[in-house]
Amino acid sequence: MMDEDVYLKKIITFRAWKRSLQFRIPQDLFSSHDVDLGTKFLLRTIVDAQYEIPKKILDLGCGYGPLGLTLKSIFPDSIVHMVDRDALAVEYSLQNGLPNGLTDIDVYGGLGYDDSKMDDFDLIVSNIPGKAGESVISYLLKESVYHLAPGGVMAVVVVRPLQQAVETVLESTPEIDVIQRKTRSGHAVFHFRFGNKPQIPRSNQSALERGVYDRTNSEFYLGDSRFPIRSAYGLAEFDTLSYLSGMVVKALYGLPKPGVRRTVIFNPGQGQVAVAVWKLFQPESIVLVDRDLLTLRYSKINLELNECPDERICLSHQTGLSLADDDKADLIVIRLREESRKANDMVIRQASETITREGMILIGGSSTAITRLISDLPSPRILRIRSRERRRGNSLLILKPA
User: Fold this and answer.
1) How far apart are CA 166 and CA 141, in angstroms?
2) CATH superfamily of 8-194
3) Tens of pLDDT along 107-148?
4) Domain ranges in the chain?
5) Tell me: the pLDDT tens digits for 362-372?
6) pLDDT for the residue numbered 1
7) In angstroms, how far is CA 91 from the centroid of its own chain?
8) Antiparallel, parallel or unpaired: β 8-16 and 79-84
9) φ, ψ of residue 234 in degrees (nearest 5)
10) Taking the complete model, does pTM exceed 0.85, yes or no?
11) Containing H/E element for 146?
12) Cα–Cα dist 166/68, whole Å
């Protein structure tokens, strides 16, 4: 849980079907102004279809909760599971449940169906992101068969540019029976169920293991050496390091190597910076921290590709940098997100509570974000500035305990 609500943008009231729900909305999740038109369209088609009341509902990619929580208010006796890869979405869906008097809801982080806690859902819903690749769309639609109860329905909404990709999957899968297909300006809705059992048995491997999210297999340079990287759709730096990440890696070379036993990497991306930390310092422990579960799992994959033992890697899926144990870090590497000044200040404050007395915090970000961060350092300062480097609108900042 967040120690303070640094992400909150506003609170809205959503009125539908003689119900009134209040949603707390963060500033950097999808549809941060109001419940989006696609969600409203999908909800309307579900209510109008008058299906048998679902005993169990799964909301894939729940965001701050408008789909799953509204369905729970319409079907109060249903058990609702809500899943999202973004810890901020999980946090806000949790915040939005109880104040609306909604219980029997399980909200958790997950990638697609890989982390689902149960099967046999009577209704699976999803507002599929506009950036979803064709392999992900195919996976979400086809593999719902393994998670639906007999006769269960999957109902999805997509933006119009994805409509053809959905149509192609549905038309090429003979077991799928399309119940409803509707379009309106900007969106398309599909309801379908499976008439027959699938011809191919369910895989024992997760979607991640099967490469559903894979984009490329490439390499990146660290000094004169090349290291393999497996990259994912939807994450930056899939073929080359950004200028900022290159600055971070170069700065790591200049840090003293002895004594770095435990490292923490915040916002590790595809994992290149984590691999650099592993190769340069060989720490006993690497803690990867991020909101995005896809980022965490691909960073772990790439550490393992580069011979980092699994037992040395720990994943922490959260919005900040609040680590549960008392074992402090000798090196913390942070790549700032630009969206929220308050969120960045929170992360640095939490880092100051995690660093050892002789440790260092290496921070990369835009020069504007770094300048703001420096001005926001608490007084009396618990961290002192060791160095700052600026290039091409980017900055590196190294902090040490005061």
Assistant:
1) 8
2) Vaccinia Virus protein VP39 (3.40.50.150)
3) 999 999 999 999 999 999 999 998 888 999 999 999 999 999
4) 8-194, 215-401
5) 999 999 999 99
6) 44
7) 12
8) unpaired
9) 90, -5
10) yes
11) none
12) 22
- The length of the chain in residues reads 402
- State both tokens at 79: 């058990």
pLDDT by residue (tens digit) across 257-276? 888 999 999 999 999 999 99
Kindly state the tokens that stand for 392. 């091409």
CA–CA gap between residue 74 and residue 53 (Å, rounded): 9
CA distance 269 to 383: 26
Structure tokens of 57? 């509902």
Confidence class of residue 30 from pLDDT cuts 50, 70 and 90? low
Burial of 304 by CB count in 10 Å (0-12 exposed, 13-18 middle, 19+ buried)?
A: middle
**CB 296 within 8 Å of CB 363:** no
What pLDDT is attached to residue 32?
Answer: 65
Tokens coding 395: 């900055």
Match domain 215-401 to its CATH number in 1.10.10.10, 3.50.50.60, 3.30.110.30, 3.40.50.150: 3.40.50.150
Cβ neighbours of residue 168 under 8 Å, at least 6 residues apart?
none
Mean pLDDT (whole number) for 1-24: 83
Distance CA 321, CA 314 (A): 13
Q: Which of the given ranges, 57-66, 188-197, 253-262, has the highest pLDDT on average?
A: 57-66
Centroid of chain to Cα 13: 26
Q: What is the pLDDT of residue 31?
A: 65
Joined tokens for residue 387: 């160095």
Q: Would you state the pLDDT for residue 337?
A: 86
How far apart are alpha carbons 49 and 315 in whole angstroms? 42
